[in-house]
Design a protein that fits this description.
Elements: H1 2-12, H2 14-19, H3 24-47, H4 58-69
Length: 79
C-alpha cells in the first residue's frame, strides 16, 4: 500500500517527491535505465531490419507493422 501511495503522490506532486530522500530515487533511476536500454535495442534492431523478409519474432513483426502504418511511439504523444 505504501508503494501505491508513493506513486499517487509522485503523480500529483512530482517535484516534491524528487526532494524527498529514499529508495524511490533508485527505482526511478532503474526505470530510466531500463527505458534507455529498450529504446537502444529497438533502434539497433530497426537499423538491421529487412522489412521485405519474413519476421523472425514478434518484435520484428511489430516493427514491420509500424513501418507499414508509419507509427512510432516515441514520436507521438500519448495524450
Amino acid at each position: 500500500m505504501l508503494l501505491y501511495d508513493l506513486f499517487q503522490l509522485y503523480n500529483t506532486f512530482p517535484k516534491f517527491v524528487e526532494c524527498i530522500p529514499g529508495k524511490h530515487k533508485k527505482l526511478f533511476a532503474l526505470l530510466q535505465k531500463t527505458q534507455d536500454y529498450v529504446k537502444n535495442q529497438a533502434e539497433i534492431r530497426l537499423k538491421h531490419l529487412d522489412a521485405n523478409s519474413t519476421p523472425q519474432d514478434y518484435t520484428e513483426a511489430f516493427m514491420i507493422k509500424m513501418i507499414q502504418v508509419k507509427c512510432w511511439p516515441w514520436e507521438t504523444p500519448l495524450w
